[in-house]
Amino acid sequence: MSDTEDRDDRDFDVLEDDQNTSDAPSTDKDDDFDYLKEIEAIEAQERELEEQRQKKKAELDKLRAEHAKEEHKRSVQRKHEMKERKKEAEWLGEPFDDDVETVPVQKKKSKKGIAAIVIIILIAIGAGSGYAYKMQMDKKTVADFEQKVASFQSEKLDGRDFGTHQSYFTDFMKECQDAIDAGDLKQITELNKQWSEVENTYTTVANGKTSLDAFVSGMDQALSTYSITDTYKKNYETLKKDAEKAQKDCDYEKVSDFQKQLDALATNLKADNMKAIQNLKNDISSTDLDKDYVSSDDQKKLDAYSKKVDQYTKEEDYAQAINTLNSWKKEVASIKKSIEQQKAEEQARAESEAAAKRAAESRAAESRAAESRAAESKAAEKKKNQTSETKNNSNSNNNNSSSNGSSSGYVLPNSSSSYLSAADVKNLSSYQLMIARNEIYARHGRKFNDSELQAYFNSKSWYKGTVNPEDFSTSVFNDYEIQNIELIQSYE
Asked: Which of 104, 185, 414, 420 is deepest in the core (most CB within 10 A)?
């Protein structure tokens, strides 16, 4: 082998070693992967590759220049050798065979070596670029998947509890993170295939959870228009506890059954509330209020209650209707109590006035009885003395009355059968007038509370006391008696 061929081989080995050394891909991994930083790293790598290409090209140009210089030197040397050999052949008288193929063969072989070197360098550069591109795309795939996982975690899973479904999402997120940490493209591809199933499961669970949350938060509002009695309160509390447990477990499939139970409870409450409203109305209407004692302000209050109850019932706000009816019922009871108290006070005043009147009458009767006794005593004394002076002082009517009274036991015997005149009564004493007035009552059998007056009439033969004072009625008087009583009272 020639020196030229040896140098070409060495040059090829050097270039190949340099290419292998410079184009070897870096195996370092960035654990804290950042998309933008990685792009910058890839671009830096591309710049480095371009610098290597320029460097290799400069080296190749230098080698070419050196090779050309060497070829020129060898060519000059060959020409010199040929010239010497030709001189030698001419001197010896031998034929000269010009070795013209030596240089072209060497030149052709040199060009092939250079072309191989260039091809190898280009292949190395292409392989390096392809590897860099593949590395870039792989890292981009990991970065996109990591961003996809992070978005799903932060936007849909963080801060939310999906009960029994929680482990499904937690396990899947862990598989995704493990694949990202390992840079396992095959596992990432498989997980991407499962992604639509996870999204659908999430949508189903999230919608069901939302529906169950809305049901639980709206339970109180759904029954807010009803008056919940103790009978239904226990059932409602049990339903609410079951719904809250299902909410905690994210057991959204039960929401339909819960809604049916709530609707049934509302239906039963409505029927009971309507019945309670009617019963309260009946209680109020059955309370008898004396309209004469109901004030205009009280009547306005009662009318306002009635309008409110009708309005709430029309709006199906049964709780407010029942509350208003209870207030209405209390107001009616209060008014009734006030009326009864007012009537009792009036009755007490009437009884007090009647008692005062009876006491006054009793005192007047006692006074009249005293006067009567004094008059009787005086009359007896006068009768006993039988003085003519008393007989002369009496007018004719008085004489007639006295004679008739003494003969019949009456002060005014004709008071029940004829109208008396002023002349008949004007000369009578107050005691005689009192006796004359009560004679009209006594003729009809009336008894007297005044013991002295009762004793006076008991002494008369014509008196028959059969009617108690409280049972006596003035309807038994005739027109003579009524007018005569008034006449006597005017003189009393």
From this structure: 420
Task: State the pLDDT at residue 133.
Answer: 64
State the sign of the Cα–Cα–Cα–Cα dihedral 111, 112, 113, 118. Answer: positive
d(CA 406, CA 383): 11
Q: How far apart are the first and last CA of the chain?
A: 186
Contact in structure between 188 and 145 (CB atoms under 8 Å): yes
User: For residue 467, what are the β-bridge partners?
Assistant: 446
Could you read off the pLDDT of 292-309 as tens digits, one per residue?
889 899 999 899 999 999
Q: Is 492 helix (H, G, I), strand (E, B) or coil?
A: coil
Q: What is the pLDDT of residue 209?
A: 79
pLDDT in tens, 307-327: 999 999 999 899 999 999 999
The owner of tokens 């008396």 is 420
pLDDT digits (tens, 9 = 90+) for 14-24: 334 444 444 44
Burial class (CB in 10 A: 0-12, 13-18, 19+), 163: middle
How far is Cα of residue 261 from the mean position of the Cα atoms in its chain?
20
CA distance linking residue 338 with residue 332, whole number of Å: 10
Q: What is the pLDDT of residue 15?
A: 37
Closest CA to 117 of 65, 63, 73, 69: 63
List Cα–Cα distances, 481 to 446, 454, 461, 485, in angstroms.
Answer: 14, 20, 21, 6
- pTM, whole model, 2 decimals? 0.41
SS3 467: strand
Q: What string of DSSP letters covers 236-278?
A: HHHHHHHHHHHHHHT-GGGHHHHHHHHHHHHHHHHHHHHHHHH
The CA-based angle 417-394-380, given to 5 degrees, is 90
Query: What residue ranges of the chain have pLDDT lower than 70?
Result: 1-35, 94, 96-133, 362, 365-366, 369, 372-373, 375-408
What is the pLDDT, as a whole number, of residue 88? 75
SS (H, E, C) 401-434: HHHHHHHHCCCCCCCCCCCCCHHHHCCCCHHHHH
Q: What are the residues whose beta carbons fall under 8 Å from the beta carbon of 395, sequence distance 6 or more?
A: 423, 427
Q: How far apart are CA 57 and CA 15, in angstroms?
A: 11
Residue with tokens 């593949």: 134
Residue 149: per-residue pLDDT:
93
